[in-house]
């Protein structure tokens, strides 16, 4: 089972009397991590290139269509780009930048949640008046920064 989550990272070789763990080489570890990274990065790169290609082809032929088709293209393009660049990128950045933040921030209002959903992520500490408190892992609270 290659890639199993419970797979040991150290290969075992039996010696004369003692089992010795032979370390996985640096090259093998780099290759393993690279494969895992490309599973995530590959579709993202494909999406960027395909979006760019759609825009280039659409703009090349935009002079040959009428006003109704132009309006339809602009609506579809706006919705498509808002979805791919706004919501999906926001989910990725909110996950990467704030896995712990969602658990520790005790005073996030619905307005701030909507801002995060629509891609208006504030890259900095969230402050909501003087009511905002951060919760430590042991249950204590710290007042705003």
Topology:
Elements: E1 11-14, E2 19-22, H1 26-60, H2 67-97, H3 99-104, H4 110-117, E3 133-135, E4 141-143
Antiparallel strand pairs: 1-2, 3-4
Transmembrane segments: 37-62, 82-105
Keywords: Membrane, Transmembrane, Transmembrane helix
Explain this structure to me?
With 145 residues, the protein is mainly α. The protein has a domain at 9-50. Helix content is 55%, strand content 10%. The chain is built from four helices and four strands; from the N terminus they run ββααααββ. The protein has helices at residues 26-60, 67-97, 99-104, 110-117; strands spanning 11-14, 19-22, 133-135, 141-143. Strands 1-2 form a two-stranded antiparallel sheet. A two-stranded antiparallel ribbon has the order 3-4. Keywords: Membrane, Transmembrane, Transmembrane helix. The chain crosses the membrane at residues 37-62, 82-105.
């Amino acid at each position: 089972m290659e890639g199993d989550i419970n797979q040991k990272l150290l290969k075992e070789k039996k010696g004369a009397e003692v089992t010795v763990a032979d370390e996985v080489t640096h090259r093998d570890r780099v290759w393993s991590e690279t494969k895992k990274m490309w599973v995530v990065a590959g579709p993202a790169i494909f999406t960027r290139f395909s979006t760019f290609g759609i825009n280039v082809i659409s703009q090349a032929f935009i002079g040959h269509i009428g006003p109704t088709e132009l309006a339809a293209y602009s609506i579809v393009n706006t919705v498509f780009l808002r979805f791919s660049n706004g919501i999906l990128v926001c989910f990725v950045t909110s996950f990467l930048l704030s896995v712990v933040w969602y658990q520790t921030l005790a005073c996030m209002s619905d307005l701030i949640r909507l801002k995060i959903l629509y891609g208006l992520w504030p890259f900095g500490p969230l402050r909501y008046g003087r009511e905002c408190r951060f919760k430590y892992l042991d249950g204590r609270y710290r007042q705003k920064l």
